[in-house]
Amino acid sequence: MQSVNLITDARYSEDKPNVLHAVKTDQLLVDGVYLKGGQTLGWKKHPDADRAFVCVQGAGELILETIAAGNELRIPLGPGAVALAPRGVFFDLIAGPGGMVCSALSKFPVRVVEKG
Q1: Pairwise CA distance, residues 55 & 102, whole Å
Q2: Using alpha carbons only, how large is the chain's radius of gyration in Å?
Q3: Contacts of 45 (CB under 8 A, 6+ apart)
Q4: Distance (Å, rounded) from C-alpha 112 to C-alpha 80?
Q5: CATH number of the domain residue 76 falls in
Q6: What is the rounded distance in angstroms from the CA atom of residue 70 to the CA atom of residue 82?
Q7: Cis ω on the peptide bond leading into residue 86 (within 30° of 0)?
Q8: Residue 5 contacts by C-beta under 8 Å, 6 or more apart in sequence?
Q9: Is the per-residue pLDDT at 53 higher than 70?
Q10: What per-residue confidence (pLDDT) applies to 69?
Q11: Which pLDDT tens digit goes with each residue over 96-105?
Q12: Is residue 6 included in any domain, yes or no?
């Protein structure tokens, strides 16, 4: 089995966030999510599964769309913080000025719906 270090194996991209599949089995997906300062992941939801985010480095926010259209719940993330994007809820990640590295965990296979 291969080992991935989400910090030393970081894969940032200048123009968009980057997602690295760190672990993928027939039931589990663990991603590394790399955002430079101010980058956003983009609104999406997972209709069939929750998605947990663990902030490994840096800071930012997990933004959840609430029931009322256009309203948002902002959850601050810093090293060691864990936040959940519940199944069926649109979410976005936004990095603070110094960027952010998160581990994202969900069941596999995962279906993603992008907003827009």
Answers
A1: 4
A2: 13
A3: 85, 87, 88, 89, 90, 91, 112, 113, 115
A4: 25
A5: 2.60.120.10
A6: 24
A7: no
A8: none
A9: yes
A10: 59
A11: 999 999 999 9
A12: no
Residue range of the domain that includes 97: 18-114
* Residues shown for the chain: 116
Peptide bond preceding 109: is omega within 30 degrees of 0, i.e. cis?
yes
Strands 82-85 and 51-65: antiparallel
* Side chain identity, residue 111: R
Nearest in space to 22 (alpha carbons), one of 43, 44, 5, 39 = 5
Q: Higher model confidence: residue 4 or residue 58? A: 58
- The upper half-sphere exposure of residue 99, i.e. CA atoms within 13 Å in the direction of its Cβ, equals 15
- Phi and psi based region of residue 41 (left: phi greater than 0; alpha: psi -120 to 50; beta: remaining): alpha
In a domain, 5, yes or no: no
Q: For residue 89, with 0-12 CB atoms within 10 Å meaning exposed, 13-18 middle and 19 or more buried, which class applies?
A: middle
Query: Token pair for residue 81?
Result: 């913080």
Task: Report the domain count for the chain.
Answer: 1
Q: Is residue 3 part of a domain?
A: no
Asked whether residue 2 is domain-assigned, the answer is: no
Binned at pLDDT 50, 70 and 90, residue 9 comes out as confident
